[in-house]
Amino acid sequence: MSVIDNPFVGPAPPEIPLTDAPLVRVIAQVRFPEILAIEQREFVAPFQEAIRSKYPVLRQEQTQGVLVGPGGISPVKAKTAWRFSDLEKQWRVSLTPEFVALETTKYTSRSDFISRLRDVLGAFDDRVEPKLVDRLGIRYIDRITGQAVDDISTLVRPEIGGISGTLLAAHVVHALSETMFELDGARFVARWGRLEPGKTIDPSAIEPTDEKSWILDLDMFSATAVSFTVDQVVEDARRYAEQIHKFFRWAVKDDFLRRYGGKL
Question: Which residue of 26, 118, 151, 153 is 20 to 30 Å from 50, comparing CA positions?
């Protein structure tokens, strides 16, 4: 296969389905100026009805935040989060007064994910009528466990393997790297490294595991406020997902793809 020298230029390579993909979660989130009416059941009901055929299970949660100021940390008023999921708990839509998100632990393809995102955002636009997007983010999280952690130097590029790909790896308990790039007005954050059993860097997205693990966490986002239009948000999300795929293909070797069921 051709080698990708720079993941930030050129077209995205084709997706190679992995029958045993280590992709544990994919998230798309759209943040907007606070809409207080989303706290109300009656206001959210039409949105629920629009997506209920795919996400029939609704759970209401209260999220507690904190405010950091000169006087220290103080709690802020809890806000309602509406969680809509499928029966298998593999797909979830979250709606709060400040964001709408789609996430999955059963990712199959970019086209499927983007199509579902379009459906969710279309229902959101019709029922809630947002005016602005404050932030759009797409995030892909891969995690490998078991023997693959010890074989990391054969699975990823040396730039990504880092100290975990050296003779010192036998003594490594925790090693995490993070790099932020700027691309056409957006930011791209790449995190990778080894985690000890029972640890996570983000409890909301990466559940702890009882065994050692190695993660590749790729997040692309824009925090520039723009008018909300479904077509533009979806197009930007697709573009971000493609860029994340380009970086992923740059980061991993063909042995990684083969190990997880890819046919080259």
Answer: 26
